[in-house]
Design brief:
The complex is a heterodimer of chains A (391) and B (177). Chain A is of the alpha+beta class. Chain A has 13 helices and twelve strands. In chain A, a hairpin with an 8-residue loop joins strand 7 (326-329) and strand 8 (338-345). Chain B folds into two domains: 1-88, no CATH class; 94-177, Arc Repressor Mutant, subunit A (Orthogonal Bundle). Chain B is 77% helix and 0% strand. Chain B has helices spanning 3-25, 28-43, 51-84, 97-110, 114-124, 129-136, 140-169. In chain B, helix 2 (28-43) runs antiparallel to helix 3 (51-84) and helix 4 (97-110) packs across helix 7 (140-169). Classes of the chains: A alpha+beta (391), B mainly alpha (177).
């Protein structure tokens, strides 16, 4: 018998299995699948592909979250949305707290990168800064932030202008009636980054200038937290620079310590924490973070990631205070902000921030790509958790 | 849109939207941020004609806009990373098998063409063919073909990557020497 069957193409088979065919077409495909062995094989294969795809994609869901205060329950998020709606007449770009809330993105990680200090290839840490200005802080935090009448940074005004333009050219009514796929381009995520991207880069240190090439790496994306600003307690503490030679030596010692530290099998657990270079750590911590500081702990890092995280942070205008605590003062929109960090153990970096201006939210994010661009989640950094600042 | 409508929309679509974005971005917190922005934009609408496809389309646009912005920088960083990969540490393998699988899955997913990837992710969140077509500006008739191609490519790439990892684990890889 010759092949009288009309073969069905793969797309039709998938549409049939997805229940997307009209009844008559579905009946026809079913009949063909039953009478044509080749088609039946294709159907079986398609079933396998559908199941396999679902299984593969489900493995991407094992992404921890919930470290951002107020971002967990639906109720909280709904409340936040409603609050934002109520505040819609007071646009986010008009909020000083938001304008200066350029957040920090710390690039650390698994892929090794090179900073070339004196060429156009320079990858300034400042360019890695990312604004999270539109993120609503929990009410309890926002309530602690006093309003301010300080002028907006230039970058913010530009962002505002673009946003206004966007509002004019994309009225809501159009959006509702336009085809879904032609819904207005949304720019706010970009715009939220504008502020931070225009933050002036911290000046290169002498050590950095001497280092022709500095490696750092990126591991994945970490998590975030929102901060309250205790304006009245904000004061910038700036330690004098030590002698350059000492500073470089200490940096080297610290980096070597991190690199030598063994990776813990379960990153971030307290039992496995091992203090590295704890000399003077407590005192330096109190000094750097101060009573108004907010402390974070970056968990789940691999040992090289810790080394490279700290190494990267050291690119940000470091003021080395001792071998275990590093500190910097940030510039631009985050002026008067003091940041301190140290390694807790081979897989943990502790980070402390003290804000001297009206910054209301900061996001710590470990970001980057793997060396070959394919291992992002393999060595994924977990989260920055807010911790009590010990005195 | 009133509060009741918002709540209905949120309860119906927040979880699938966040899952879709998480799979797309590989970052749950980032996904939640984008999702919140999507719902905020929905709030400003009087009504949504095809709400699910609208939400997914706006989410897709948000991600795409940001991706465009960071692509150039990321590419540059990757080039630099490639230059230095021999002179620095090799990232240690994670002990978590799930993380390893997720890494391969993400690589396989990233190997898909953008449209195929988005169609597949949307379908996994329950969007029907009409909704996928609307969100991605496809004809309904081509969605089946798009999904078939995406699923095949995803599964085949995933399998091939697993085999490659196995070979490397057995010491067969000499690229890093």
């Amino acid at each position: 018998m010759t092949d009288r069957h009309e073969h069905i193409d793969e797309g039709t088979i998938h549409a049939w299995l997805d229940g997307a065919l009209p009844p008559d077409e579905s009946t026809r495909v079913e009949a063909v699948a039953q009478s044509c062995p080749e088609c039946a094989a294709l159907v079986a294969e398609a079933r396998g592909l559908i199941a396999a795809s679902s299984r593969i994609l489900s493995s991407l869901d094992a992404v921890p979250a919930g470290v951002i205060p107020g971002s967990g329950a639906h109720g909280d998020q709904l409340a936040a949305l409603r609050a934002r709606r109520r505040a819609s007449t007071h646009r986010w770009w008009q909020d000083r707290r938001v304008m200066v809330a350029a957040s920090l993105v710390f690039v650390a990680g698994a892929s090794s990168l090179v900073l070339r200090q004196s060429s156009e290839d320079v990858v300034s840490p400042a360019t890695q800064l990312t604004a999270e200005s539109d993120r609503p802080a929990p009410d309890s935090m926002l309530s602690a932030v006093p309003p301010t009448a300080a002028p907006a940074p230039t970058a913010t005004r530009e962002s505002e202008a673009r946003d206004r333009k966007s509002e004019q050219t994309n009225p809501a009514a159009d959006m509702a009636q336009t085809k879904v796929a032609t819904a207005p381009r949304v720019d706010s995520v970009d715009e939220r980054k504008v502020v931070a991207e225009k933050v002036a880069a911290p000046p290169p240190t002498a050590a950095a200038n001497e280092a022709r090439r500095t490696d750092f790496a990126t591991v994945g994306r970490g998590a975030a937290d929102s901060l309250a600003i205790q304006r009245d307690r904000a004061a910038v503490i700036q330690r004098p620079l030590r002698q350059e030679g000492t500073r470089q030596a200490l940096q080297q010692v610290a980096a070597d310590s991190f690199a030598r530290a063994p990776a813990a099998p379960t990153p971030g657990t307290g039992a496995q924490r091992r203090s590295i270079g704890a000399i003077g750590g407590a005192a330096a911590m109190a000094d750097a973070a101060g009573p108004g500081g907010t402390c974070y702990r970056l968990n789940g890092l691999t040992a090289p990631a810790v080394a490279d995280t700290v190494r990267l942070l050291n690119q940000m205008a470091p003021v080395l205070s001792d071998p275990s605590w590093f500190r910097t003062q940030l510039f631009g929109a985050l002026r008067d902000t003091t940041l301190a960090w140290r390694s807790i153990d081979s897989v943990t970096v502790e980070l402390r921030a003290r804000f001297g201006s009206d910054t209301s939210a900061v996001r710590f994010r470990i970001d980057g790509v793997a060396p070959d661009g394919r291992s992002l989640s393999r060595v994924r950094i977990e989260f920055a958790t807010r911790v009590a600042c010990p005195r | 849109m009133n509060d009741d409508e918002l709540e209905r929309l949120f309860r119906l679509y927040h979880a699938p939207l966040v899952r879709y974005l998480t799979r797309r971005l590989g970052d749950r917190d980032w996904a939640e941020e984008v999702a919140q922005e999507v719902f905020l934009r929905a709030l400003r609408q009087e009504s949504l004609k095809s709400e699910r496809s609208w939400l997914f389309a706006v989410a897709t646009n948000l991600v795409r806009d940001e991706a465009r912005r960071t692509a150039r920088q990321r590419k540059h960083l990757m080039v630099l990373a490639e230059q230095e990969r021999d002179s620095v540490f090799e990232p240690p393998p994670t002990t978590a098998e799930t993380a390893h699988e997720a890494a391969i899955a993400r690589q396989a997913l990233e190997s898909l063409a953008e449209r195929d990837r988005l169609a597949l992710l949307m379908r996994e969140e329950g969007l029907n063919y009409e909704e996928i077509a609307a969100a991605l500006e496809l004809s309904v008739g081509s969605v089946g073909t798009t999904l078939a191609r995406a699923r095949r490519r995803l599964a085949e790439t995933y399998e091939s990557l697993q085999k490659g990892e196995g070979r490397r684990a057995a010491g067969g890889d000499d690229h890093d020497r």
